[in-house]
Amino acid sequence: MKPADATDRADVLGLLHRAQRESGRNYIPEERLKEIARETGITESDIYGVVTFYSMFSLQPRGEYIIRVCTSGSCHLMGSGTVLGVLKDTLKIGVGETTSDGKFTLEETSCLGACEESPAMMINEELYGNLTPEKIQEILSTY
Ligand code: FES
Fold this sequence. Notes:
CATH architecture of the largest domain: 3-Layer(aba) Sandwich
Largest sheet: 4 strands, mixed
Bound molecules: FE2/S2 (inorganic) cluster
Radius of gyration: 17 Å
CATH superfamily of the largest domain: Glutaredoxin
Strand order of the largest sheet: 2-1-3-4
Number of domains: 2
CATH topology of the largest domain: Glutaredoxin
């Protein structure tokens, strides 16, 4: 067994991203986590530690689209609570939940690096800022 150095970590992150993408449900199945441990020689508990450290990874099946609403300082001040409220009402789910059709999962996140566009959210890799209730409805209608 080799120690997890910086290169190993980068490899593991890539493998975990791929595993999550290939699952079709935006999560890392337990069996795949074990395979990655075998492939890399890194212990399962170390890989589990990586998966649970990064909020972008999940061990539970999620929706096709992950909506991450920033609730950090600037976004909080500019109305992330309203953004979450609109999304909850529209999608009929709470934070951490997935719509019954498996399309959307709603999550909170820390700063997305788009404070000048507060309040902001991401849907998968796409960033949306200066959100208003109307704009949120427009955005959702494109998915
Ligand atoms: S505080 Fe929300 S993007 Fe920075």
